[in-house]
Specification:
Among the domains are: 51 residues, no CATH class; 50 residues, no CATH class. The chain has 5 helices and 2 strands. It has a two-stranded antiparallel sheet. The two termini are 63 Å apart.
Length: 180
């Protein structure tokens, strides 16, 4: 990045940038400390030294807020309770606590794998284990016979076809997918 030459004729732009920067720092310090008057006086001195008017240096964020983002929140959302704002600042998204509900959702226990049909379990092992076996064969057993590789591929294809054939053939119109 090229820095401007300190002896160049375009130093007025650098002074304006410095004045804007000092103005921004003064405004941020004033909002953090809560005492805006001393910072505004210092700001006016710095702005007058830089050649800008005091009216330009006293602009607030609302002057530069075309979307209206600096307006405070007037009322909290109806489903959340507000934390007391002792600082007098506007409320933000982290200033709310969500009410805990006692009747929260508890999922039912999944079905045991011990009660699964043995053929379905074997098909799942083939469908998941086939690609894993091919990957491990390619990594660790480079000289595997072609019949072993074709056997793994055939087991995978047969497992996937079996699982697809076990899918329901027609849609149940009474079932919308929700469970109570």
């Amino acid at each position: 990045m090229n820095r401007p030459d300190p002896n160049s004729a375009d130093q007025s732009a650098n002074k304006d940038d410095d004045a804007v920067w000092l103005d921004l720092v003064a405004r941020l310090e004033a909002t953090e400390s809560g005492a805006g008057e001393p910072a505004a006086a210092d700001n006016a001195e710095q702005a007058s030294e830089a050649g800008t008017s005091q009216a330009e240096s006293n602009k607030t964020f609302k002057d530069f807020d075309p979307l209206g983002l600096s307006t405070p929140v007037t009322e909290p959302a109806p489903e959340a309770t507000a934390i007391p704002a002792a600082t007098g600042r506007s409320l933000g998204p982290r200033d709310f606590e969500v009410d805990e509900e006692d009747d929260s959702f508890v999922p039912e226990e999944p079905a045991s794998l011990a009660g699964t049909e043995p053929l379905t379990m074997l098909a799942w092992v083939g469908a998941v284990g086939g690609p894993i076996a091919l990957l491990l064969t390619a990594m660790f057993w480079r000289s595997a016979p072609l019949t072993a590789i074709l056997g793994i591929v055939a087991a995978f294809v047969a497992s996937v076809v079996f699982l697809i054939m076990r899918l329901p053939q027609e849609k149940n119109d009474n079932d919308d997918g929700a469970r109570i």
